Amino acid sequence: MNISTTKKELQQAFSKLSKTTQIKSQNPLVNYTYISSSPAGVVLHSTDMEVGVKTNINASVNSAGECLFPTSEMNDIISVLGEGRVDIEVSGPHINIKSEKGLSFDISTVPFQDYPDIPENNHDNLFCIDTTDLKDIIASLLYAINSEPTKPALNGACLNFLDSNVDFVATDGHRLVKISKQNTTNIKGSFIIPKKFLSILSAFLEGQSETNLILSGNYIFTNNNNDVFYSKIIDEKYPSYNAVIPEENPLTLTADKSEMLNNIKAASIAANKNTNQISLHLSEGRVFFKSVNQPESKTVHAPLKSAKYAGEDFSIGFNATYLKEAVSKYPNDEIVFTFKDSLSATLFLPKVSNQKTTILLMPVRINE
Which of 15, 193, 240, 294 makes a 20 to 30 Å CA pair with 283? Predict the structure, then answer.
């Protein structure tokens, strides 16, 4: 294989491809990028066996061929290449990369025959969504996705296509985010999309006004011009998320988002580092956060001056980190909480056009 391209082309390609690379893996091939040159052009493909990216680069093909580039090493080489033409020649187990200004690198490669193929996209189910809306949804879901490998069904977000709605859901058992939008497709069924795919997706979609998500077989695909980004779908059954959402929480609290975030941070200063617990105390005309750390003789009292609450007096405990994340992701300037009691799930009910958003947070027992 012998091709000529530019540093800019390689830089743009590897900035996308390297996102799928896993440094630690039982399969060493995931640390390589597959490249193929033919009269039709030059194609690069990188995968970690879960997510993958395929992209094309503009290049002159002097001779066809295929090989594997060590992804991390190629990124290092590209960073020091001068601007201008770059010649790449593969001969046996060696790759020679030469810049227009004479900088030259000889690196080794490994056989490409066992590198995984790009999965077949049969375009079975197509879901089209406004890209800005999708990015906002992803940002709202990511923090609630479980990261423990012992619960694989929760290691992604669920796309559940129902008769009238499509639900986007994420939960780790302690908090839950559910966003419902109108289902304008004929798709039915539930699909669990891995967190890694969603984490990379927003950057991959830059420049697109609409996004097509294609659900085909055991994979999800999306395109951006000549680039293809795909992921395996998690083959697990997602839990019945609607069963944990209270049908009625009669007590309501409203407060300014900025003040609430500041007071959560303030209360966190004295929180026990092991439990990370703070408490919210509610009574008519008086609402405040509190944290008590008995071993270290620390106490914080943080009143919410903007709070509006009318109901019975009660107190409820939260994990400070979970509460801060839920409030920081709340899309409105005024927070609306609803409660039933100190042991039941708290609901956050933001107002967002063209969708229904529910944020749930489980309380913790107050131990002060």
Answer: 294
